[in-house]
Design brief:
- The structure is a single chain.
- The chain is mostly beta strands.
- The chain has one helix at residues 3-15; strands at 20-25, 28-33, 41-44, 71-74, 79-82, 98-99, 104-110, 113-118, 123-128, 135-136, 141-147.
- Strand 7 (104-110) and strand 8 (113-118) form a beta hairpin.
- It is elongated and about 85 Å long.
């Protein structure tokens, strides 16, 4: 496409106060847009008939991952979790520790209140799902406990 034709199209765009002009002739396409800068784009037009069929590679089978062992105990409120009773102290629990129902395994601070979070069942700590000082959401897993009957 010659530059005189492009200049004529730009003039039509300005005279008619158009914001965009999109013209396709054969395998050439021109898009003009009004604004601070005018962009001219020329590219061949590809019709659907010209696109070759591309075979899709077969997806490898993905085996379903096993759910982690244990029961997740979730945060009953939003706040900051603390895994130890005070800075520098040993954590309440670590992976492999046995807990009884009612044992405190962390503290969640919410609205300047420190809330002891207690184990809901007896078992062994399979995983600690949060970091000390992390902000937790309601329902976010805090620990995973392997119940006593599943340990054998």
């Amino acid at each position: 496409m010659d530059t005189n034709k492009i200049n004529d199209l730009a003039k039509i765009l300005r005279q008619n106060q158009l914001t965009k002009l999109d013209l396709t002739e054969g395998d050439t396409r021109i898009v003009l847009e009004a604004g601070g800068r005018q962009a001219v784009v020329e590219m061949p037009v590809v019709s659907v008939e010209n696109i070759a069929e591309v075979p899709v590679a077969e997806m490898p089978s993905v085996e379903k991952a096993e759910a982690p062992a244990g029961v997740e105990q979730k945060s009953p409120l939003v706040g900051t979790v603390y895994l130890a009773p005070q800075a520098g102290a040993e954590p309440f629990v670590q992976v492999g520790d046995k807990v009884k129902k009612g044992d405190v395994f962390c503290i969640v601070e919410s609205m300047k209140m420190f809330n002891n979070i207690e184990a809901e069942l007896e078992g062994t700590i399979a995983a600690v799902c949060v970091d000390n000082g992390q902000i937790v959401e309601f329902g976010q897993p805090l620990v995973r406990i392997l119940p006593e009957k599943e340990e054998n």
